[in-house]
Structure formats: structure tokens, C-alpha cells
Amino acid sequence: xxxxxxxxxxxxxxxxxxxxxxxxxxxxxxxxxxxxxxxxxxxxxxxxxxxxxxxxxxxxxxxxxxxxxxxxxxxxxxxxxxxxxxxxxxxxxxxxxxxxxxxxxxxxxxxxxxxxxxxxxxxxxxxxxxxxxxxxxxxxxxxxxxxxxxxxxxxxxxxxxxxxxxxxxxxxxxxxxxxxxxxxxxxxxxxxxxxxxxxxxxxxxxxxxxxxxxxxxxxxxxxxxxxxxxxxxxxxxxxxxxxxxxxxxxxxxxxxxxxxxxxxxxxxxxxxxxxxxxxxxxxxxxxxxxxxxxxxxxxxxxxxxxxxxxxxxxxxxxxxxx
Length: 322
Ligand SMILES: Nc1ncnc2c1ncn2[C@@H]1O[C@H](COP(=O)(O)OP(=O)(O)O)[C@@H](O)[C@H]1O
Ligand SMILES: [Mg+2]
What we know:
single chain; alpha/beta; Rossmann fold; Arc Repressor Mutant, subunit A; three-stranded antiparallel sheet; 14% strand; binds adenosine-5'-diphosphate; binds magnesium ion
């Protein structure tokens, strides 16, 4: 029932990257609900090699050695999984398989937390590791130093050994910025922004749903191309035949920000005013205030061009009402 809209240029870029030998870590970034995970699942399902997909929202490793690993199952399960991957549609792994005895040794510090993974990866066919919602590792008990070790390993398997592609996915770009600096990744990272769908794709989609051009335009002007917001309106339109829900979507966002501002300071209120008008350069925003806006999902920070925006067109429209 759910349609997959556009993303041709992103898919083209990812295919190019995955078609060449691995040489760098790719950061896929973009605001929440912009369609990053959906795009990654699409890529993983089309990928001719082996995709290993980590969702760190569902998985919260507390030790370095089990961030990327899963215990290797017994022979019967292994055969079953092999057949499923070989003949079924599912070809996505949940981790790099390591024998339970090795995992034990790793947990006791008798074995390096990463070295055994290199051997396992060499046994996989053109592996690609997708680390989704990576910012959750921050809250899972891993410290800065451990995160740097993890990223150094990711650099090792891409840039140095060329044995696996690595795609790191996140909407928390302040975290990416920190990690890139801490792990000295500046020269090895590549970036792909996944933002809103283009206007034409949105208008075509709304037309397909049976919306007249005036309504479709209003939807685009209010929400831009944010897939999640568009689905909310489409569901409403399918049920009620109108797009009256737009107003309440904006009002709800505005009242959430008004509430947040009650316990915030004047600097936060000033940033909100600026974001209502458009993008703000990083140089003009205090770090603490930026942190407030990003954490509360009011603003999105683009680390590549150093700009700060309202998190969505809908949010920008909401901020205009404050
Ligand atoms: N290309 C797309 N076409 C249609 N719907 C999409 C597309 N990308 C995302 N969506 C929908 O938007 C919602 C948010 O997407 P998701 O991939 O979870 O965003 P993110 O991972 O960036 O937070 C999902 O419900 C998904 O079905
Ligand atoms: Mg996601």
C-alpha cells in the first residue's frame, strides 16, 4: 500500500558508490522523517552483495565488541539462513557473525574487539554495513574514546583495507560533527543529504491520490516534500476527501514550540524568529542555543554547509505563527 516516491538521484549516487571499491565512510544525513531509513532499506534490498543493517534504535550495545557482531548460529540455523538469503527475498543480515567462543574472549578483553571482524567480513560477498540511528550509541554507555575506536575501525575496513562499504545514517548532525572531528575523519568521510522530495514528485503524487491542482499546491506550500508529513495528509484525504488537517498540523507544531519557549531564554526566542524567516549561518548561533533547537526538533543543522534550518517546511510555517 505504501508507495515509494522518487529518490532517483540518491539511488543513482548510492549505486555508483557501492559499485566501486570501498574507500571512505559515507554519512547519510537529513532531518527526521526525511526518508533515510526507507531509502537505505530500498538500497539494501537491491544490493547484489551482502547488506548488514543495524538499527541502533532497536539495538543498544553496551560494550564495544558487540556493537557490530551477532553470535554465529549453529549449523542447522546457518543452512536455513543461507537458503533464505540465496533463494528468498531477504538478504539482509543483522550483524557480523562471530563464534560464541570468540565473543566470550572479546568480552573478557582477551581478544581485540574488532580484529576478528575483519576475517568474517572477508568471507562475505561485497559487504555493506549500514549503521542507522548512530546517535543512539551516545546513550548506550559507550564513551567518546570507544566511539572513536569504532570509527577508526570503520575507516580501517573502508579506506585502508577496502573490504566493506560503510554507510552511517543519522539525523543528529551535531553528533556527526563531533565524531568526525574526534576520529579525525575529515579527509575520509563523504556525505549524502537526504532531504525533502522534489516539488514535481509531490504534485504528481497528490494528483495520483485524486487531489485537484489547487489543493496539491497548498499541500506542497505548507509541508514541502517531507514524506512523513505528506503521508499524514494523504491518509486524511483518503478518508475525508479534504485537506483541512493542514491547519491543525501547523497549529500543533506552533503550540509545541510556544510551550518549549516558556522555559527557554531570549536567545532561543531570537533563533526561533530567525528560523521562521529562513536559514541561519552556524557562525551566528550560540552552540548551547543550537543544541536546544536541535534536541527539541525545532532546527536541523547541516554540517556540510554549516547552516541551520527549521526542521521542516511545516515547522517553518509554524514558527511564522509565533
Ligand atoms: N521515498 C518515499 N516515498 C514515500 N514515502 C516515503 C519515502 N521515504 C519515506 N517515506 C515515508 O516517510 C516516513 C518516514 O521515513 P523514514 O525513512 O522513517 O525517515 P527517516 O529514517 O529519515 O527518519 C515513513 O513512514 C516512510 O514510509
Ligand atoms: Mg530512520
